[in-house]
Amino acid sequence: MSTHSGDVSNNDSSIRIIDSCSSVTELEDIDFSRLPRPRNLNIERQGSYDEKSLTETQLGFSPHPPSRAENFFRALEHFDCIFSPTKRSEFTTPRSPFGQGPHPMVAEAWDSLRRTLVHFRGQPVGTIAALDNSDEKLNYDQVFVRDFVPSALAFLMNREPEIVKNFLLKTLRLQSWEKKIDRFQLGEGVMPASFKVLHDPVRNTETLIADFGESAIGRVAPIDSGFWWIILLRAYTKSTGDTSLSELPECQKGMRLILSLCLSEGFDTFPTLLCADGCSMIDRRMGVYGYPIEIQALFFMALRCALLLLKHDAEGKEFVERIVKRLHALSYHMRNYFWLDLKQLNDIYRYKTEEYSHTAVNKFNVMPDSLPEWVFDFMPVSGGYFLGNVGPSNMDFRWFCLGNCIAILSSLATPEQATKIMELIESRWHELVGEMPLKVCYPAIEGHEWRIVTGCDPKNTRWSYHNGGSWPVLLWLLTAACIKTGRPQLARRAIEVAEQRLSKDGWPEYYDGKLGRFIGKQARKYQTWSIAGYLVAKMMLEDPSHLGMISLEEDKQLKPVLKRSASF
Question: Which 3 state secondary structure label does DSSP give 340?
Fold first, then answer.
């Protein structure tokens, strides 16, 4: 999860504080009386969970043949509809294999999740990062945007959407705050990394404090927060069938502000986003600066979600056009230059260097000698994955779980690529899943490379934390990717591995070791997104129709001819 190592000072002048006893103008949230009556979406099953293509969004409906994974979903046709906003899922408490009644781990997980709820003015607005009883809570007592996502999905699947709605509106309100680090003002669209509620029992007031990166390790703003916010808004809309929230002028403006930050023109020659180290889940120095796969995949998914949510008014139409252009360029770039399989690995091995022309094959001037030895044995014959990072004379060959799973769910990966990613996971099960799912990245860096890349970070030693640690929260992403690619048995296998220890160990934040055998040396117990990730994985496996709120089908208009240059 987030490093959660930067404490927030109440005296920090760079953080704006809103007190519940302040003026009405200052405290006024979005006027709920302006909310139109919820309007249900006309959701129809079309084999799988099909979203509008770019052509549909702009010009009208464009039918296309079913995807490969739809064969799996044909078994789900007994459901009346994808989501029913009027009743809770029948699979909220999966049955125990040992008899009737709820699975004991599920009941325990729900109880723990509900104890993490944070309230502001009587309304639940999120979940804290961990039920941490230690003296050094650091910032684990805050509501983190990225950490809340699996909690939000669990509540949506359980037909409890109000907390998700409150969270979306509250973080939207925080977005409008003035954001300064020292004397520098951040972009208007930046979403907070986290927020907390301070209670004053003497004055009987509640105060919100937000962190936009000014209190984080390295003082880096969270690029992923805005993307997760858009993705979660679409999940809420898809799950409830209620479009009134996303159609609020405040929500429309919030999306446009986020998009303005990442669609702005500059010196970039690539459609990918240039990022600093520590701007996402891996929020410490880990050599992911440049164009990390996690941010690019989230960027792609957020763009596609925004395309479905933006109104086609004067302001919205302009952004739709910009999104369409960026999606075409981004999908081509990622599917060509970030993709690695056995054939492409062999091509890189034989690269020529110092090519100077628009027909160059080695466009980034990558030196073949920079290929790590481990990747030749790691790459299976039929597998593949998106590289960790690609930039000038740089390819990070590490496998990153979140980026590759989001690539599948957003359909950044073509069906063929998605199949190869899953085949790699299955072929390298021992390395990537081991005794506790799932490696955040593989392999770990160590020795001299670790000293140079991490700056001798004692928390990111080899096979620990972000450096090859095993994170139970990733179970929900793996499960979703497995279901989408028609491999539910693989998800079930991973869940069974987690169930052997996760509850007994106290729901740790992460595990250490090559196989994930040891509870992380600095891992917090009762980590909220470890709990919520398990619940989401379990509910999706029992009721795969839940996948629709977090998955987008392939857009045929984005399907490229996979060629790296005219010289191929």
Answer: strand
Best CA proximity match to 538, nearest among 487, 478, 486: 478
What are the E-state strand segments in 205-336?
205-211
DSSP code string of 440-493:
SEES---HHHHHHHHSS-STT-TTBTTBT-B-GGGHHHHHHHHHHTT-HHHHHH
Radius of gyration of the chain (CA): 23
Q: How many helices (H) and strands (E) does the chain have?
A: 19, 16
Q: What is the helix (H) or strand (E) element at residue 530, kind and residue range?
A: helix 528-542
How far is Cα 154 from Cα 369, in angstroms, rounded to an integer?
46
Report the distance separating Cα 172 and Cα 258, nearest Å.
11
Which residues make Cβ contacts (< 8 Å) with residue 267, sequence separation at least 6?
Answer: none
Distance CA 110, CA 169 (A): 24
pTM for the full model? 0.83
Residue 278's nearest CA partner among 298, 263, 256, 295 is 295
CA–CA gap between residue 317 and residue 438 (Å, rounded): 40
Spatial separation of the C-alpha atoms in residues 398 and 396, rounded to whole Å: 6
Helices (H), 274-313: 293-309
Query: Would strands 389-391 and 384-386 be described as parallel, antiparallel, or unpaired?
Result: unpaired
CB 518 within 8 A of CB 511: yes
Partners of 464 in beta bridges: 467
Contact criterion met (CB below 8 Å) for 85 and 240:
yes
169 in Cβ contact with 30 (< 8 Å): yes
CA distance linking residue 176 with residue 208, whole number of Å: 14
- Angle at which helix 162-175 crosses helix 249-263, to 10 degrees, equals 60
In 350-390, which ranges are continuous DSSP H helix?
374-378
66: phi then psi, degrees, rounded to nearest 5: -65, 150
Residue whose token pair is 């506790």: 436
Length in residues, the chain: 568
**Tens-digit pLDDT string for the chain (568 aa):** 444 544 433 434 333 333 433 332 333 344 444 444 444 444 333 333 334 444 444 433 344 444 545 555 444 433 333 333 434 544 444 444 434 456 789 999 999 999 999 999 999 999 999 997 765 667 889 999 999 999 999 999 999 999 999 999 999 999 988 887 788 888 899 999 999 999 988 998 998 999 998 887 778 889 999 999 999 999 999 999 999 999 999 999 999 999 999 998 888 899 999 999 989 999 999 999 999 999 999 999 999 999 999 999 988 999 999 999 999 999 999 999 999 999 999 999 999 988 887 888 888 999 999 999 999 999 999 999 999 999 999 999 999 999 999 999 999 999 999 999 999 999 999 999 999 999 999 999 999 999 999 999 999 999 999 999 999 999 999 999 999 999 999 999 999 999 999 999 999 999 999 999 999 999 999 999 999 999 999 999 999 999 999 999 988 777 654 544 433 3
Specify whether the CB–CB gap between 262 and 273 falls below 8 A. Answer: yes
